[in-house]
Amino acid sequence: MHKFLAFLAVAVILWGCQRRPGAEEEARAWLAKGVSQFQNQEYARAIDSLSRAAAFPPQAASACTLLGLAYRFRYYEVRDPELRAREVEAYRRALAVDPDYWLAHYHLGTTLYYDGDYGAAVSHLRRVVELQPQHPDRAQLEEIITAGKSP
Prior knowledge:
By secondary structure, the chain is an all-alpha fold. Helix content is 77%, strand content 0%. It contains eight helices and no strands.
């Protein structure tokens, strides 16, 4: 399931970046490099490239969200709690740039949920349902939202 979500995130991020006119070449280059590294499971390298891409406003929300995923997968490799904190921070940065970026809400909500912060998770997952009423995981998200604070 994690690999499917990561693939979905990469596809949505790439699609969103192609639709943003005027995006700087350097940002696109760093983002493309980070995506390639992410797909090759080179998460530490992807973190560096995506951090650079996130510095450019036209693509910051997308880059920060993918950066969060890179931190997540790097965390799974080495289990360093600092990486989990950086993952959450990256999603929050994405939402600071674009408060309606549903993909950042989704990943932040699921991370918070699995880390046991159910109250905070619910608010983000609720926002996903509002922004993406046809989301394929809608029923599962609504169950979590209804439960409110426990798995």
